[in-house]
Amino acid sequence: MVDENKIILVALIEQTYGISTEPIFKIINFLPDFKVKKIHENGLHKKNSQGQYCFDIIHKDVFQIPYVGDIKNLSVIVGENGSGKTTIINQILRGGKGKSQIYLIFKQNDKFWTYPDLAQESISIPHCSTHPYIIKFSNAKEFPSGDIYIRSGAIDASNYKNIIGFDKNDKNIIGFDKNDKIIILKETINQIKFVEKFKHKIIEFVDYTQKGVNVTFEGNKLPNMSNQLLYLDKIEKLTNKIDRDFINHKVVEYFSILINYIIDIEYSEKNRSQIKYEELLNLHLNFRNNKNIQNQYQSIGIDSDRFLPYDYSIGGLRNDVSDIQLNDSNIKQWIEIWHTLYIINLYFNYVVKSKVGRDNKYHEEISTMLKELEQKLQYNFNFSTNEIDELKKQIEQIKVSYKELENGLFDQSTSYTQSLKKWDQVWQKIKAPCFRVAKAISYTSYFELTEHGYFVKHKLIPDRVWTKLKDNGIPSSEIERLKDIEELLYKLHEINTDFKILSEIISTISEISIPELEESLQFRWIGLSSGELGLLRSFASLYSAKLALQRKTPRGIDQENFLILLDEVDLGMHPEWQRKWVSTALPIIEKIFDNKHLQIIITTHSPIFLSDIYKENIIYLSKENTEYENNKFNKTFGQNIYTLYKNSFFLNRLMGEYAYKSIEDTFEYLNFKINSDSKGIRPESLFKELSDNLQKKTAQKIIESVGEPIIANQLQELFNRAFLENKDEIEEIKDKIAKLQEQLKQLEEDNSK
User: Fold this and answer.
1) What is the pLDDT of residue 729?
2) Residues 424, 271: contact at Cβ < 8 Å?
3) Which of 185, 308, 385, 572 has the highest CB neighbour number within 10 Å of its CB?
4) Which spans of this chain does the record mark as coiled coil (predicted)?
5) Domains delineated in the chain
6) Rounded distance, CA 139 to CA 85, Å?
């Protein structure tokens, strides 16, 4: 990227008020080569003719080595607990609170300005509305401060809800209302996409493709693992029983979601005027007359090794009728009765809605059903006396309503209206188990049922599902995508490491208009530690936030620049990962923001970070001082980590990975300069692509920055040998030494005579 396009945050100025009416300005400078300072005159903060407080920006020529690629604008904020590290990050992201005003000082080329562009500026530096994209990510949990505003063109990616909400909220106010379960799912999906795209980069930290992902469907209306489920034909071919059981159940769960979607449409009561009573009446009369109906009743009533979901089984029915003791001896009879009552109620509603007389095509069949129901009560059911008496009352009311309905429909007689009202009162008391049985029968109709003693075996019939979806208005193109998902599910395992298949499932489901499918789907990482998950969250959230910002760019945003705020990004990481973070994580972040200029500000509690950071890039905060210091530490780069962080963690090397590689590269480079017969400079070396002048400056900078005296001295000796001003002069000095040694020898021989 061309340097002239870079926008850099130079400093933050916080304006507050103390006891006096005069404002107090606190300054934090982020760059080693530019410093913002207050201008004092006669011991007071100088004001210009407009009454604005004057500041000066001082430039200092500081040679900087990029940490990776183009990233050299890196600041690490450290300090005591409570010194305000997170506060500074939030001030950059959000601005000031209360009477506090925050000014961000940006630089592009030779131009400096303050942001935001306020109507009344208190400071003399020109103001402008331009700034880079701003992304914050934190692994720390912050207590709500009540301050929810975020600057335009900025995202707090610490909570994935904010990334989802960015596209839905023009003001980018935190608090977008989204189901937490869906947010977790979308975040995990985003992580899977990230691993697939960046797996070759992130493997230097963790090989997430070997960790694996578990794919599940969740919901109250999904079937149970049971021996009563038979294998689908495609699964019969698999040799491994564990795979057969897992994949078979997973595919049936998937189809169950589609079946439930169909059932919810067919039985919806949101708008009674739109209920298709005749369609449902036809459907259930056909069910009742089918030879399979007894198996369906039996399946619903099975209590042991139950396959059917709770909502479609004896478990749900027990919840509906807690006063009835359902058991193996009476459940099937109750299910048949509730199904009959459901059909009769459908008939009543159909007649009223259609205004048909007794000559309607269902009249004779419903009359027969009523007689059969009345006759069955004469049998010795395993019902209590109270249960039988209550059923008789219900049947009497049905008979009265049925007769008056036929006789009084067209003259709207009082008896007809009152009779229906009485029936409706009865129906409201009994409709819960009736509806549950009706839906359960619909659910089981998508399976081939085979009686097996007490049990009923179930085998899914996928073609019935596809046909019903088409009948309910799902386009053929979408049904084909649903079939693609089915084929992908056959390729899954209990733990999945094929991220291409996972990504295909995700992308295909995103094209489907059935929301229940996405809501039921769950992806879970297997075997990830909290540190591994935290690391993945940080990278994937930065990537997702970048895409969200680029989809929706407000005015005033320079799209070539990103300011990344990483608050305690090392939290929860093992020290060995902290040691490698600069060397390994920065290249990943650079890749995420490919071809964009990055400025990164990090806060940390971990001194381990400092071993990889040049002194001028460290900002130290103290609770006592109002000024922000960067001279708290001596040379940190390449410093022994045990000196910076006295702890008992096991570390492979005693300095940060970036520092180690830089020092190793410097040793190699200086040896190459000294010994012409050396093997040369490795392609991955820090010095490989640099000009001769930059190679020399880089070596000098590293030697000056190393905090370990022994290493620094060794490097300096090599540097002196490599960069003597003239090789001929070396030979001349050697000749002089040889001649002097010869003269000395001659004098010694003369004196001995």
Assistant:
1) 61
2) no
3) 308
4) 381-408, 723-753
5) 3-189+530-643 (3.40.50), 267-458 (no CATH), 657-722 (no CATH)
6) 14
| Virtual torsion, Cα 301, 269, 482, 462, nearest 10 deg | 30
Give start and end residues of each alpha helix (H) in 675-708: 692-705
Tell which wins on pLDDT, 652 or 101. 101
Which amino acid would we find at residue 229?
Answer: L
Distance CA 675, CA 625 (A): 51
* 464-486 pLDDT, tens digit each: 999 999 999 999 999 999 999 99
Q: How many CB atoms lie within 10 A of CB 338?
A: 25
For the cut 60, the answer to whether the pLDDT of residue 166 exceeds it is yes
Pairing between β-strand 34-38 and β-strand 55-59 as defined by DSSP bridges: antiparallel
Query: Where do runs of H (alpha helix) occur along 9-133?
Result: 85-94
Residue 723 neighbours by CB under 8 Å, 6+ apart: 673, 696
Question: Is 74 exposed, middle or buried (CB count within 10 Å of its CB: 0-12, 13-18, 19+)?
Answer: buried
pLDDT tens per residue, range 444-467: 999 999 999 999 999 999 999 999
Residue 420, classed as helix, strand or coil, is: helix
Average pLDDT over residues 11-25: 86
Per-residue pLDDT tens over the stretch 381-407 = 667 778 777 888 888 878 777 777 666
Q: Could you tell me which residues come within 8 angstroms of residue 307 by beta carbon, excluding any fewer than 6 positions away? A: 223, 224, 226, 228, 229, 299, 458
Q: For residue 200, what pLDDT is reported?
A: 86
3-state helix, strand, coil in the chain (%, to 5): 50, 15, 35
Sign of CA dihedral 712, 718, 719, 721: positive
Q: Please count the CA atoms within 13 angstroms of the CA of 575 that sit on its side-chain side.
A: 19
Alpha carbon distance 581, 143 (integer Å) = 27
DSSP 208: G
Q: 3-state secondary structure string, 526-559?
A: CCCCHHHHHHHHHHHHHHHHHHHHHHCCCCCEEE
Distance between CA 147 and CA 94 in Å, rounded?
8
Mark residue 453 as left, alpha or beta (left: phi above 0; alpha: psi -120 to 50; beta: remaining): left
Instruction: Check residue 51 and give left, alpha or beta (phi > 0: left; psi -120 to 50: alpha).
Output: left
Q: What percent of the chain has pLDDT over 90?
A: 39
Q: How many degrees, rounded to 5, is the angle at CA 360 between CA 376 and CA 352?
A: 85
HEC string of 300-357 equals HHCCCCCCCCHHHCHHHHHHHCCCCCCCCCCHHHHHHHHHHHHHHHHHHHHHHHHCCC
Answer whether 740's CB lies under 8 Å from 733's CB.
no
Read off the amino acid at residue 324. I
DSSP, collapsed to helix, strand or coil, labels residue 104 as strand
CA distance 474 to 472: 6
Q: Are 283 and 362 in contact (CB under 8 A)?
A: no
Q: How far apart are CA 698 and CA 675, in angstroms?
A: 19
The two three-digit tokens of residue 394, written as one number: 């219900």
Most confident of 299-313, 338-352, 597-611: 299-313
The burial class, CB within 10 Å (0-12 / 13-18 / 19+), for 612 is buried
**Which candidate, 4, 3, 5, 15, places its Cα nearest to that of 105?**
15
Omega within 30 of 0 (cis) for the link into 66: no
**What is d(CA 399, CA 290) in angstroms, rounded to the nearest whole number?**
26
| Dist CA 592 CA 594 (whole Å) | 6
pLDDT mean over 633-645: 61
Residues 6+ apart with CB under 8 A from 191: 525, 536, 537, 540
Q: Are 33 and 62 in contact (CB under 8 A)?
A: yes
* Secondary element (H or E) of residue 50: none
